């Protein structure tokens, strides 16, 4: 890989020429004390190792245990804002962690996918109606009886409308 780089050298700011007010001279004196960078030439390097990576900025608060915690939170329906609140960071930090830690991103996506599938299955059952086994407990004159029954739930009109508007919006989008 070819990397273009510039050779730089620290130098003082250029001096002012011509007539300048005293205020400008004082300000220029303050500015000229700072170091400036002067570009001398451009060259191409065949290796990136010529420019070592510097550790700058605050160290990350990311920990490996966050992978499992984020997955469990997403299974409970957490979104990125909820994850940020839980870990005590901003949403942008969560996005940065997703970019720099693929296993963290994978755990979040896996958790959200599983939860979305469960909700879709529940909506489907609600829209089409469903039945499930249950137990009925009754007390008649002090005698408790437990009876196995099957509970039936009819389709929900609201769930049907929601499903059709999202799955076939061109047919069911407007009423």
Low-confidence segments? 31-40
| Helix share, percent | 40-55%
Strand order, main sheet: write it out. Answer: 1-2
Residue share in β-strands: 15-25%
Quaternary structure classification? single chain
Largest sheet: 2 strands, antiparallel
Radius of gyration: 33 Å
**What structural class do the secondary elements suggest?**
alpha+beta
Overall number of strands: 4
Number of domains: 3
Global outline:
elongated
**Total helical elements:** 7
- Strand and helix order: EHEHHHHEEHH
Topology:
Blueprint: E1 3-12, H1 22-32, E2 35-45, H2 66-75, H3 80-87, H4 91-100, H5 102-128, E3 130-140, E4 143-153, H6 157-167, H7 169-172
Antiparallel strand pairs: 1-2, 3-4
Helix pairs in contact: 2-5, 3-4, 4-5, 5-6
């Amino acid at each position: 890989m070819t990397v273009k780089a510039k050779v730089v050298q620290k130098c003082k700011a250029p001096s002012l020429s011509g007539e300048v007010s005293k205020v400008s001279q004082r300000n220029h004196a303050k500015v000229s004390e700072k170091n400036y960078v002067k570009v001398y030439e451009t060259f191409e390097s065949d290796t990136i190792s010529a420019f070592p990576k510097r550790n700058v900025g605050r160290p990350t608060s990311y920990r490996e245990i966050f992978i499992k915690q984020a997955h469990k939170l997403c299974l409970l329906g957490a979104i990125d804002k909820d994850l940020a609140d839980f870990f005590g960071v901003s949403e942008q930090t969560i996005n940065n962690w997703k970019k720099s830690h693929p296993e963290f991103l994978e755990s979040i996506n896996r958790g959200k996918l599983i939860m979305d599938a469960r909700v879709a299955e529940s909506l489907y059952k609600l829209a089409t109606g469903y039945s499930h086994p249950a137990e009925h407990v009754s007390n008649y004159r002090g005698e408790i009886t437990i009876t196995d029954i099957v509970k039936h739930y009819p389709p929900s009109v609201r769930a049907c409308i929601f499903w059709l508007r999202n799955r076939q919006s061109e047919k069911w989008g407007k009423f």
